[in-house]
Amino acid sequence: MKAALLLLLAVPGFAFAQSRDQAGAAPQRGWSVGVAVAAADSPYVGEGARILPFPMFAYEGERLFLRGISGGVHLIDTGAFQIDALVSARLDGFDIDDLSASGLAANGLEAVLLDDRDHGLDAGIGAAWSGSFGRVRVQALADVTDTSGGHDIGVEYTYMLRSGAWTILPSAGVRWMSKDLTKYYFGTQDAEVERGVPRYNPGSAVVPSLSVAATRPLGERWNFLGGFTYRLLPDELSDSPLLERNAHGVPSIFGGVSYRF
Known about the structure:
It is a single chain. The protein is mainly beta and 261 residues long. It has 6 helices and 13 strands. It has helices at residues 3-10, 14-18, 101-106, 179-186, 190-194, 235-238; strands at 30-41, 49-60, 64-67, 70-77, 81-90, 120-131, 134-143, 151-158, 161-163, 166-177, 205-217, 222-232, 249-260. A hairpin with a 7-residue loop joins strand 7 (134-143) and strand 8 (151-158).
């Protein structure tokens, strides 16, 4: 699994921790940079568990924001309620050479007949509500590079708990992926089928997830960040011949430090 994809899987609470609290207080302006180490168990055949370092960075301005591989503009911001225009890299692509040829063969696929899957760029809109109840975030993104031609809609609920210097952020979410999106990253392509690859078209899918993130200040400007995420793969995705047969979920964990300028 690519380092960038590890970042996607590992840090669902990072944006919330870097933005504002659930009472709607304004975020701290400026840049944050850091480094972390993530570990994730890839569901793709032969990739296995990977442990990789990656940089963390974020920027919070009055309107503009940047959080890792995504960013945007606050179109409406009342403190407790935001509507944002969003842009996000989709780094789910992979090289067929990185997968196990023997594992693919065991699933009925010939590696030489398969194509790589490319990364993409998504754009869309998001909304968030914050209060004493926690924070609810909804976003809809669509591929603007015609890589997959797909789109997805996600809903996530996060609650903030404080224990001494620690801030704990448990979250639960669900993501609906369109059939074009799942076909590109989990199915077989029409050009591959023409070469003799068995057709697998998973259709749209719903992917639930649970996560816990934690932050703690380490002095005036340094912070510790860590977290765990588990994404449950529905049968439509776990049955993909590109995946390990026992890959019913994707666990990931990360930890690192950041510095706020």
